[in-house]
Amino acid sequence: MSVQTASLPVATQPQKQRFRVRPSRIVLNVVLAAVAIFWLVPSIGIAIISLRPNSAFEQSGWWTVFTAPAQLTFHNYQQLFSAGFKPGGVLDALTTSIAVTVPVTILVTVISSLTAYSLVFGRWRGRTAVFLLIVAMLVLPLQMALIPVASLYKIFDNSTGLHLFGSVIGTIVFHVAFGLPFGIFLMRNFYSGIPHDLLEAGRIDGAGEWTLFRKVVMPIGIPALASLAIFQFIWVWNDLLVALIFLSGNPHQTLTLFLYGQVRALSSNYWVISTGAMISIVIPLIVFFAFQRYFVRGVLAGAVK
Amino acid sequence: MAGVVLDDLTKRYDGGALAVDKLNLDIKDGEFVCLVGPSGCGKTTALRMIAGLEEISSGQVRIGDRVVNNLPPRDRDIAMVFQSYALYPHMSVRDNMAFGLQLRKTPKADIDKAVVEAARILDLERFLDRKPGQLSGGQRQRVALGRAIVREPAVFLMDEPLSNLDAKLRVQTRAEIARMHTRLEATMIYVTHDQVEAMTMGDRIAVINEGVLQQAGTPKDLYELPQNRFVAGFIGSPSMNFIDLKVSQDGGAVRLTGEGAEMRPDDTESALLRDLGLDTVAVGFRPEHLDVAPLSGPGLSVTVVVDVVEFLGNDELIHGSSAGRDVVAIINADNTLAVGESVTLSAPPRRLHLFNPTTGLRITKDGPPADGVAHLVSTG
Predict the structure, then answer these.
(1) Are A69 and A95 in a shared domain?
(2) A12 and A41: one domain?
(3) What average pLDDT does range A183-211 have in this prediction?
(4) Is pLDDT at B380 greater than 70 in this prediction?
(5) By percentage, how much of chain B surpasses pLDDT 70?
């Protein structure tokens, strides 16, 4: 049963009983808290480094902040943001990351969803073969395709005079191509669970394929779509390798490239890296919390059935 | 409102399997017709061809005066109720019912009126803003009925709508559908495997087996004059008993004997059997037409050893065996029969059904049908 119904009897019990906690539960909670803190230590460390002056980094560890909290300052952030949207600055990198990630996420979810609809509910021959081919593509390592696709882009650029290689659009195309197999796989499996009767009822009600997709199948698929959107967003947001190759020569860099640029210097700019890392965490966190309720609802919906 | 005509309707799957074979049926405007038959007999396939959900291999479907073979479901002016309800899980009851009208661009005020009216008829007013997941099975099926009603279609198609309901709800919803039919005076085609459902609801019943229409007629016709052994065995509960009897002529009189039973035909039957010159005849008789009494005059008598006695209150259901053949009888509970007892049961001539043991067709004084199709003509 769902969490809701399970918690009902507890709520109706007298006040006294509500606070009686079993010892095993205390131990469990302590262990869980310990694991959670342990897991968070690196992030907390980076957050604190970004809030300390650069000079302090070379003199003492970040944990000293707990005894001397006066050293905390927003100076690093001010300095990074002061560059404005000029190429090479953190705000430009943030914009470029968004310019790559958002279109990729939208394209992958929409195309995956449409393809999955056709694979599950379409009436054409060879659907299974096409699906198996797509599953086979999941096995293909992205790293193997980097150089061949880069050469392909060059050939395309030379013959058309366009500049796909080194452009944001070229990067988006590559990410979409490599995001689709998983997206289609996920959505196809989810849509397979939708009874065909539902679509037939829709057809009799007067819906064409497009209406069926938009009004019947898509709304039911929202939990899966939300999961796919979250995964896809985080993968592309955190990508360094693809951006390194396909954005090479472009003055606009993604956040990962921006941070990587700071590491390469003889002595790394830890204050820039820590501050940039904190900025790069914010957007995925917003996305995650925005979609989280669909995500959780999706998990529950499967459990109750 | 419109009638439906099925003309040599055939469905052959890609693999070559024949699901529906030359189905002919003339359903009149406002008629309630049940398609009944065992699982996999092709009744649902036939319904889906009428709905436009299944391609027609050959033959014709006409709704009103239009041939609809190549029309998509939405242009056929039909509504369908599914066994699985097929409600849109993400929409409220109201939206589920309104969806079809919204797609037809009906003005909003009209949609609201139609939905509220349907909800009132089906007692769903309190649930209009709930999602299907928050309703019981019976309520869900009523929503599915409501979704069909609001569209005011020419023809209602129902595919085993009661199969997922428990016994009590099934009886309730059955009455609901019957009321709906009287009220709307709409043409309804109702698929079921349950002959009791078909008998109680249908103006006319079409019995289908292995893709072939066996007989179409009123419930009374099917019960009293089954045209072949399949229909005889399928309609009625418990089902009809059959015994194979050898035909012999003793002077002028025709005698049928065998398997612990004896039949003395009346004059018309005697003449008929003499003309046909069959060696054996399959005799069918319904459990409820048997009596604990020796035979006086024409009729059938069969001696059985009682295996099981089921007490039904007013009646008793007797399972017996006669020369290895099972015989079921429903007799008055005053006849206290014990297990192991031997008893002679009898049935009068007008309650006996004679069938050709090889073709399975009914033996009547009009003679057996010339081909396999003649007896399929509606008797209603």
Answers:
(1) no
(2) yes
(3) 91
(4) no
(5) 96
* B130 DSSP assignment: S
User: Is there a contact between B51 and A201 if contact means CB atoms under 8 Å apart?
Assistant: no
What domain range is A19 assigned to? 3-73
Q: Are residues A65 and A129 in the same domain?
A: no
B99 near A CB under 8 A: yes
* Domain-embedded: residue A85: no
* Complex ipTM over 0.90: no
For residue A19, tell me if it sits in a domain: yes
Contact A205 B78 (CB under 8 A): no
pLDDT at B298 over 90: no
Q: What is the pLDDT of residues B299-320, one digit of tens each?
A: 899 999 999 999 888 899 999 9
Question: What domains, with CATH codes, occur in chain B?
Answer: 4-232 (3.40.50.300), 242-368 (2.40.50.140)
Does B86 contact chain A (CB < 8 Å)?
Answer: yes
User: How many angstroms separate the Cα of B297 from the Cα of each of B105, B262, B294, B301, B346?
Assistant: 71, 12, 10, 11, 11
Do B147 and A205 count as a contact with CB atoms less than 8 A apart? Answer: yes
**Angle ∠(B176,B181,B186) on CA atoms, nearest 5:** 150
Other Cβ atoms less than 10 A from the Cβ of A181: the count is 18
Contact B287, B317 (CB under 8 A): yes
Same domain, A291 and A221: yes
How far apart CA B47 and CA A194 sit, in angstroms, is 22
Torsion angle, alpha carbons of A158, A160, A161, A165, to 10 = -60
B234 against B15, higher pLDDT: B234
User: DSSP labels for A239-298?
Assistant: --HHHHHHTTT-SS--HHHHHHHHHHSSS--HHHHHHHHHHHHHHHHHHHHHHHHHHHHH
Taking residues A97-126, report their average pLDDT.
94
